[in-house]
Design goal:
Number of helices: 14
Helix content: over 70%
Largest sheet: none
Shape: globular
Strand content: under 5%
Number of domains: 1
Order of helices and strands: HHHHHHHHHHHHHH
Low-confidence stretches: none
Mean pLDDT: 88
Number of strands: 0
Length: 302
């Protein structure tokens, strides 16, 4: 990757990592659905501004908006809501680590639904490492008990699985239009879906928020959603989807550090073990590191 692409990836990782911390701040004064309503609404506004700025167009067809509606549910409504709900009982840093498992789940979902994404032996090993990482984080007690912490972890994993389905859905249905227009349509449909859900379960979003919470909402809505999607699609265009996947390894350190600095969060040692296993799994699934090691070994032997 170019130096600019590396810089964009690091910036995106920090923004997304900080978003987990800002959501944790926001849900101190509002419900999870209310937090997501703000997130999708502000994100959609920023993305439509980007669409106008670059002169992109969103197709005015039922097929496009139907695909955006499904994508909005899979990529925004379900994961944002489950993760915000889960963060009521687990740390923001731990949420970001479990969120990294989305790429591992993505390999499984793609292998099951896409003909050109077979689960090779290498990918199977990578998936196994990722699953081992999740198991190391949650522990067997998460399967045997229903305490708030275990439920929170399961909710975040459910959100990560939804992201995996969303990536496959995007490949199947949103390949033609401008990525920024697709992202704007997705966020718009997610926002429209969140309105009745929020009103039904939690009521209108509160407006009497403290300045710190307003700042948190502005950050994760404007930067963590709208601007982040713009950077993400730029990164894919400039460095490729495989390289963009590496951002999932940058996000947890940023979230862990900010959670410690701003929220006084600390994580147990097994959470870091799990992060290491998930990172190893992603490296094996990606395959490039293994190919480099083989080439280096071959050069040394030769």
């Amino acid at each position: 990757m170019s130096d600019r692409a590396w810089a964009e990836m690091m910036l995106l990782g920090v923004i997304w990592g900080a978003s987990f911390t800002m959501v944790a701040v926001a849900i101190r004064e509002m419900g999870p659905f209310q937090a997501v309503l703000w997130r999708t609404g502000l994100g959609a506004a920023v993305l439509w501004g980007a669409v106008a700025l670059i002169g992109a167009r969103a197709p005015m067809t039922w097929r496009f908006w139907g695909a955006c509606a499904v994508m909005g549910v899979l990529n925004n409504v379900i994961p944002f809501s489950l993760m915000a709900w889960g963060q009521q009982s687990i740390e923001s840093g731990l949420t970001s680590i479990l969120n990294a498992s989305a790429a591992v789940f993505g390999a499984l979902v793609a292998a099951a639904l896409l003909r050109d994404e077979r689960l090779t032996a290498r990918r199977a090993v990578g998936v196994a490492l990722g699953v081992a990482g999740v198991a190391a984080i949650t522990g067997v007690e998460a399967l045997s008990g229903l305490d708030p912490r275990s439920l929170g972890q399961m909710a975040v994993l459910g959100g990560a699985l939804s992201y995996a389905f969303a990536s496959t859905w995007a490949r199947l249905t949103l390949g033609g239009p401008s990525p920024i227009a697709s992202a704007a349509g997705m966020c718009t449909m997610a926002f429209l879906t969140m309105i009745p859900l929020t009103l039904w379960f939690e009521g209108p979003p509160p407006l009497d928020l403290s300045p710190g919470v307003w700042a948190a909402v502005a950050f994760y809505g404007i930067a963590g959603t709208g601007l982040a999607y713009v950077i993400y699609w730029r990164l894919i265009a400039n460095a490729g989807a495989a390289n963009a996947l590496l951002v999932t390894l940058v996000t947890p350190p940023a979230a862990i550090l900010l959670g410690w600095l701003l929220l006084d969060e600390t994580l147990p040692a097994h959470a870091y073990l799990g992060l290491g296993l998930i990172a190893s799994g992603l490296a094996v699934i990606d395959g490039r590191l293994l190919r480099r090691l083989r080439r280096r070994r071959g050069a040394e032997i030769g």
